[in-house]
Design goal:
heterodimer; A: 418 residues; mainly alpha; MetI-like fold; two-stranded antiparallel sheet; 19 helices; 71% helix; B: 278 residues; 12 helices
């Protein structure tokens, strides 16, 4: 730069061109180095975090049971136009693979898959397979229909055809209380089985209630703490940070102890004489709300506090000196400046609240469980992995949408801890 | 704010009432935050077997039972092994990534950042189900290794956030000075950059440790009876039969969190001093 001015004009031009090239090269090297430093974590996350989640998304539409156990039948069913009953070769290969499956004991997966659409298909399948003759009595269609009339019903074969497809919308539809009828159009499921939309509404409602309560309790607290001299507020912040650092299980366990029938809260209320009978505070919605608000409140207070600390008291003084009442000054001058903190805190609490599992599982009753509980239930208890994956996918999509909003409004690099 | 709340002499009655009400509300919310945690501590010293007041007498029997139980001790061992391994892994990977993210804006910078932070916001049950399906064919379920890998992914964002925040206040002229004095990049990093950002790195590591040490959802999916971790043991205890043993374990965990919080505060002050913020 300064060196080039010492040489002649043309020299300077060449030098500056060289310098530019050199700068570009250095810049490119810096970018490469940066990418190389980030790469190990990125690769690690891609393999051990992203791939499992993508795997779960895929599992929510996976339909491999029939195609893997009965490949020929599946291929033949895919060729069929789906009108009335399938042609004889489909019946023939189905009979052959059914017998083979019975021999190798591989029918359980197919039976389970078909049961999801027609509840009694499991018994029909096994009853047909047991002692199936090796050669047909007439056509295979007649033979199978004679063994069980279900096989003469076009609706059964519509289900079989759907089970033979490479992917299925079955679980995703079920997770929003929809199913396919015999003609393949999407309909609402019977109202006694329609539970998932209610569970999603409950999940979002509970997260919203917790968020509002956290804001109502957290805003005045952060406001007061931010207005105190640093020495005092740092001391009081310990009371916010200690719960933040304490294990979620300790906090949840503490609430189970506090809220139980003979627990300290009921004892104290009875002692004061406010109630004569112990209140049911745990294993219901009240308990879940109290415990969740307690656990998530620091996530509201911390961003609010850091925003409020940065607001100069001079603005409020100016407003009051110009004749605003304290309330007007607060509403017109102070409140608008805290909106970024309110947004950050609310989004964070809501995002975390929507995914809660442990606290409702320990403090809630059967009617207080959120979507996460059902994801775990289908994975570990009923082993309906397609359903677990579908509910998980819907929850994931909702969370990622909120995360995107957070990133746009607040900025990912603004996410701070403590 | 101070002008209104520290009440000038001419404050009206309404202002005084508001002042008192705000203090009262603040005290109530702070009590709500801290009391549930403090209440557990005396209950753990009860000589009776019920978790209520008044205590029939004081004793250390529940601590004896806790520390004499092979089940609790082995779960503590498992938790410590997993937490330390995933902390080391997450801290190294996360610190390198933070240095990279700080060094230059490369194409896809924002996307990379979003991916790196996403383990913090994705519901734990989704991570749990995902790794459960994914790790099973690799033989990583029912193993501490599988849990460590999952916890590393969950802990890494905390390291990245904390170290990145420290790097933002880092004066890059210092490493340039080191380079101009003949240090190569590695030397400059270990002799100049690392000592200055070390408090941030250690804070990140502590966050990573707590993330793993506290994590129960993924542990519920990935561990069998042999790999039971402390939070999982707590979870089963609270669900099946909540006894003063749980209170004793909780008390020890509270002591641990007080220790961690103190170390974090010391580190924060040290970091601010090192970077010349104060």
């Amino acid at each position: 730069m300064t060196a080039s001015s010492l040489t002649g004009r043309s020299g300077a031009r060449i030098e500056s061109r060289n310098l530019k090239a050199q700068l570009r090269r250095t810049e490119r090297r810096r970018k490469l180095e940066a990418a190389a430093l980030v790469a190990p974590l990125l690769i690690f996350l891609a393999v051990f975090f992203l791939a499992p989640i993508v795997g779960m998304l895929i599992r929510s539409v996976e339909n491999s049971e029939l195609p893997t156990t009965m490949p020929e039948t599946a291929a033949a069913l895919r060729q069929w136009d789906g009108i009335d009953l399938p042609p004889e070769p489909v019946f023939a290969s189905f009979a052959r693979e059914l017998a083979a499956g019975q021999r190798d004991r591989t029918l359980a997966g197919v039976a389970k898959r078909l049961t999801y659409e027609v509840p009694n298909m499991r018994s029909v399948l096994f009853a047909t397979a047991r002692g199936l003759p090796e050669t047909p009595n007439g056509t295979w269609r007649d033979t199978l229909t004679a063994r069980d009339k279900t096989w003469g019903d076009p609706a059964t074969w519509a289900v079989m055809r759907r089970a033979a497809a490479p992917v299925t919308p079955l679980y995703m539809l079920a997770s929003v209380d929809r199913e396919m009828d015999a003609s393949g159009s999407i309909v609402k499921v019977a109202s006694d089985r329609a539970i998932y939309i209610d569970i999603f509404i409950r999940t979002f409602w509970m997260a919203a209630v917790v968020t509002v309560w956290c804001l109502v309790l957290g805003y005045p607290l952060a406001f007061k703490l931010a207005s105190l001299p640093p020495r005092v507020s740092n001391l009081l912040m310990i009371l916010v940070l200690l719960p933040f650092w304490t294990s979620i299980l300790v906090r949840t366990g503490a609430w189970v102890v506090l809220l139980q029938r003979e627990g300290p809260i009921n004892e104290a209320l009875q002692w004061v004489g406010l109630i004569s009978e112990p209140l049911q505070l745990v294993y219901n919605r009240v308990g879940v709300y109290v415990a969740m608000i307690h656990i998530l409140l620091p996530f509201m207070v911390l961003p609010l506090y850091s925003v409020m600390r940065g607001i100069s008291p001079a603005y409020m003084r100016a407003a009051t000196s110009l004749g605003a009442t304290p309330f007007t000054a607060f509403r017109r001058v102070y409140l608008p400046q805290t909106i970024p903190g309110v947004g950050a805190g609310c989004l964070l609490v809501f995002i975390l609240g929507v995914g809660y599992y442990i606290t409702p599982a320990l403090v809630g009753g059967a009617g207080d469980q959120m979507v996460s509980y059902f994801v775990a239930f289908f994975t570990n208890q009923t082993i309906n992995w397609g359903m677990a994956a579908a509910l998980g996918s819907v929850l994931l999509i909702a969370t990622l949408l909120l995360y995107w909003v957070y990133a746009r409004l607040v900025g990912i690099d603004r996410m701070r801890m403590g | 704010m101070g002008s209104i709340l520290n009440l000038p002499p001419h404050a009206t009655g309404a202002q005084k009432a508001w002042h008192v009400a705000l203090w009262a509300l603040t005290a109530l919310v702070l009590a709500f935050l801290i009391l549930p945690i403090l209440v557990i501590i005396p209950l753990s010293f009860s000589s009776g077997s019920f978790l209520n007041f008044p205590l029939p007498g004081l004793s250390l029997r529940w601590y004896h039972e806790l520390l004499g139980s092979e089940r609790w001790l082995s779960s503590l061992r498992n938790s410590v092994v997993v937490a330390i391994s995933s902390t080391l892994l997450a801290t190294v990977l996360g610190t390198l990534a933070s240095l990279g993210l700080q060094r230059a804006r490369f194409p896809g910078h924002a996307l990379v950042m979003a991916l790196v932070i996403s383990p913090m916001v994705v519901p734990l049950v989704i991570v749990a189900v995902g790794v459960y399906f994914f790790y099973a064919p690799l033989g990583l379920t029912g193993s501490l290794l599988g849990l460590t890998l999952a916890h590393t992914a969950l802990a890494a964002p905390f390291v990245v956030i904390t170290v990145s925040a420290t790097l933002q206040g880092f004066d890059t002229n210092l490493s340039r000075a080191a380079a101009s004095l003949g240090a190569n990049q590695t030397t400059a990093f270990f002799r100049v950059t690392l000592p200055i950002i070390l408090p941030g790195v250690v804070s990140g590591a502590l966050f990573a440790f707590v993330t793993s040490f506290d994590e129960v959802v993924v542990a519920l999916f990935l561990t069998g009876p042999g790999e039971r971790t402390l939070p999982r043991q707590m979870f089963d205890g609270i669900r099946e039969n909540i006894s003063p043993v749980i209170a004793a374990a909780a008390t020890l965990l509270i002591v641990l969190s007080i220790l961690l919080m103190t170390v974090m505060e010391v580190l924060r002050r040290r970091s601010e001093r090192l970077r010349g913020i104060r």
